[in-house]
Automatic annotation (TrEMBL):
It comes from the Bacteria. This is Uncharacterized protein DUF1329. It comes from Panacagrimonas perspica. The lineage of its organism: Bacteria, Pseudomonadati, Pseudomonadota, Gammaproteobacteria, Nevskiales.
Amino acid sequence: MRIRKYDFDYSRRVFMDKVAKGAAGGVLAPLWPTVANSGEVTKAYPDELLSIEMYTKGKIKPGDVITSANVDVVKDLLDPICYKQVKEMNRRIKIKESIKDISKMFNHRYLELTLKNAGRAKFSTDGNLWTDGKEGDIWVGGMPFPDAKTAQEACCNISTSWGRHDYSQYVIPCWSVGPDGEQAYFHNLIWFELQTTGRNDGEIFKGFKDKLRLNTALFTGPNDVKGSSFLSVWYYDQRKFPDLYGYFPAFKRVRQFPTNQRFEPLVPGMALHLTDAWGAGDPMLTWGNFKIVERRPMLGPCADNWYAGHHPNWYAPFHGGPKGKTFFDKTFELIPECIVWDSEPTGFARAPVGRRRTWSDARNGTMVTQVTYDRRGELYKQIEFGTGQMKNDVTEILDADGYPDWSWHTAQFHDIQSNRITLIRHAREADGYKSLFIDDGTAYDKFMTTSAVARLGQ
């Protein structure tokens, strides 16, 4: 039987061939050269990868809601824990049209640098990232590997600059829900993130060439953890663990903690661990055995998904689970190509995780979802991110250049073995702090030193 070149399975065969050959993204044309020329992904993919209605042959269309009644139609487009959430836990997912305009999937300056510096990122023999492959030449900014061909390149796209801004200050309400569907814990977390190298402004912050970022996590509520804070000093050398300092009001002093214990809750009751941040919460080279498993379409919450902008403090409704409190309302779209890659925690002798599988959106390199497996190979945990422009018909957050800003909106961390889930949301303000992306020159002294951590807790 003769196989037609452009039949419905053409994309699947192309993806398989690309994985075997270690080729970059795109089906009908190379993805990032197409993006650079047109600003869109349309010419890189056939229609059935940009239309959920065509992909499902009319069974699902934009505006529909995925429920337990129809989830089997799109089972191959979901991670195994998301499928279980919909099939067994009454999760509902609204479907929208796929984004084709690449500018809606980035903050403006980061996208400009990604296009400008494409092709300049290289790994040295020790696995670290350098500009043009010259050891000592700090990465000049933007997504290092927009046309990622290996799993390590896909990981580097996430770990090099988490929030893709030079400075990010997030107000994060955190709901932790027990297996009975009731809220077991609520925390207010303020997350400060200062990029020292690979910045959008082209500078090296305070000359810290040996550092990658500074990151402080401050809990402002409830009272039993209020004032607890943690400072992580990240090294540019991704073989080194960050220096981790913590302050607890009960002890009234800053302590240095071991940083290889990254698979434990920041505070009791949360399913969020240090290793989970952005799906790449550890130095890249403390993980190994990187491998691309496949390239494939995927459903995920990655653009035009800012329900929260309709609420004064950027909140969104809950639904699902035994009490209607287990999941945020979210809208998914058909992502034409995800890079599905595995890695193992080679730098952690006692890690409860044996393997993690990450789905990276080939269009912008962000993590869509991640599933980890325990040492026995059993499903352990899901991390699901929702990202996109901070813009809707009610609210618009603009960057310093007047463009709609981009960030993460929601995330969920679901321990499937205990059936405990922590939901976090990017909120406008809480406890005297506001979410923002501009450093007025005081952030380092206020939030990024050990003395600052002690002051925050008092």
